[in-house]
Each structure stands twice: as C-alpha cells, then as structure tokens.
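Late entry, evening session. Most of the bench is empty. Finally got around to the prediction I had been postponing all week. Sequence below, unchanged from the version circulated by S.P.
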Amino acid sequence: MNSPEIREFIRENSHLFWWIKPDEQENADIAFLTEAVLNYGNEKSVRKLFNLVGVEKVAEIFHRQTSGPRTNYHPRTANYFRLYFQRHA
C-alpha cells in the first residue's frame, strides 16, 4: 500500500503510466514507479521521486533492475543514472 504522498505523486504523473488503467495506477509498486519515472519523467518528477523515496532506495531499485541480462531502461537513461548513482548514492 502506497503512502498518501506517493499516491498523490502518481496522480500528478499519471501520464507516465498511460498503459495502466486509471483505477489501478495508485496501486503501482515502488519498483514500477521508479522505472517509469526514470525512463519517462522530467527533472521535476525525478527530483520529487528522490524526495519521496530517497536517492539510496531509488539507486538500489535501479541497480537491481539493470543488473540482469534484460532491462526496460533506454540505453541512454541507464547510462546516465548509472553514472549519477555512482556519484550521489
């Protein structure tokens, strides 16, 4: 169950989850939210995600998602955040 702040964040950024039914968006888990925001979000939404979840937690999720042979991140996005988290997390 997501906190009220995270549910509000999901409502504000619902355009990032266009393929999920609106009534199911607020139940998205943090891993899915992280992937969608890092892949499709802007600077403001990424910063808000860091403030809500924490940079270290987002970095942990990102590294778990990109450590396998297959990833859903765009190559440039994965490279950018790999470098970013090496320095800031």
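Two things to note before I forget:
Residues 28-88 form one domain.
The chain has a mean pLDDT of 92.
Will write this up properly tomorrow.
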